[in-house]
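Field log, afternoon session.

UNIT: design team B
ACTIVITY: writing a sequence onto a fixed backbone
BACKBONE:
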């Protein structure tokens, strides 16, 4: 990574937050290009890893179990305590939401193992594609929760169509390149550093779209919005903290924290608005802001430590 990138990386997230707030209407109009940016990021990320050497680990299992159990467990606990169904659904989505496809950008900049990050990026997204439809089917069939009933197969197919092209296509393209055109794969891997700049562009669009979403959906529901925001902040702390603790136990603190804490908030918003009460998606919108503020601090702190060595 060049010296210029090293200097500016701690400031990219704050700049994206400010620009996203200022130009949130514009970001909403260009959001359609984000999947293509993420697709390219994954191509560059996967090209730098030997796909055939990826292996499941105990860390992958514990991360998946946390998402599966805490999401549905937290939902039913809040409902049992008399909390609003919208807040419970926001928590369900916020914990179950798949890991961000671009998680490798920040994780590897801070020293995480690229194979560990790549493995759970694939496994975690596939897990959500199977588990989320099951949970949505259960939730929408129980209680007066302001949702329409959905079937497992319908929601499974919709989620798979959303996740599959972004995650699956880059994986299989690089797998074929590494098997039959290794020189082409190696040439692509030399430009993996460009993923930082692509991620910065995607971040600006995503944050702007998220802020726009909060503005559009907040009016008239400020009490629920406030609780969704507080819950998002609380679980941002819990997921990054618990993920780092798990990662430390398996030799990669950074990977554990990012894989559990860094969410694909756009996917979370889409799942909530499609399958649950649309207002519950504000949880994921707030979470997106909080996780990126924390990531900005992490990059600044890591850069300061590195400069003192």
């Amino acid at each position: 990574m060049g010296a210029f990138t090293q200097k500016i990386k701690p400031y990219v997230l704050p700049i994206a937050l400010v620009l996203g707030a200022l130009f949130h209407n514009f970001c909403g109009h260009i959001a359609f290009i984000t999947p293509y940016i993420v697709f390219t990021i994954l191509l560059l990320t996967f090209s730098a890893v030997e796909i055939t050497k990826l292996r499941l680990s105990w860390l992958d299992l514990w991360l998946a179990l946390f998402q599966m159990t805490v999401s549905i467990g937290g939902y039913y606990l809040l409902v049992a305590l008399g909390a609003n169904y919208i807040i419970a659904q926001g928590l369900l989505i916020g914990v179950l939401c798949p890991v961000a496809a671009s998680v490798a950008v920040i994780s590897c900049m801070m020293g995480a193992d690229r194979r560990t990050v790549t493995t759970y990026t694939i496994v975690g997204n596939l897990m959500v594609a199977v588990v989320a439809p099951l949970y949505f089917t259960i939730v929408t069939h129980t209680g007066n929760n302001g949702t329409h009933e959905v079937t497992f197969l319908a929601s499974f197919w919709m989620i798979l169509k959303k996740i599959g092209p972004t995650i699956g296509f880059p994986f299989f393209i690089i797998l074929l390149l590494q098997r039959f055109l290794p020189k082409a794969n190696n040439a692509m891997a030399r430009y993996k550093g460009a993923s930082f700049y692509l991620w910065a562009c995607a971040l600006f669009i995503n944050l702007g779209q998220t802020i726009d979403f909060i503005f559009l959906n907040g009016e008239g529901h400020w009490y629920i919005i406030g609780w969704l925001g507080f819950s998002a902040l609380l679980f941002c702390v819990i997921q990054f903290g618990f993920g780092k603790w798990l990662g430390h136990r398996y030799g990669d603190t950074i990977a554990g924290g990012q894989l559990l804490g860094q969410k694909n908030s756009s996917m979370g918003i889409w799942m909530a608005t499609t399958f649950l009460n649309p207002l519950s998606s504000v949880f994921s919108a707030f979470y997106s802001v909080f996780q990126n503020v924390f990531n900005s601090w992490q990059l600044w702190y890591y850069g300061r430590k590195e400069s003192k060595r």
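LOG NOTE: The chain has one domain: 3-308.
NEXT ACTIVITY: expression trials, pending approval
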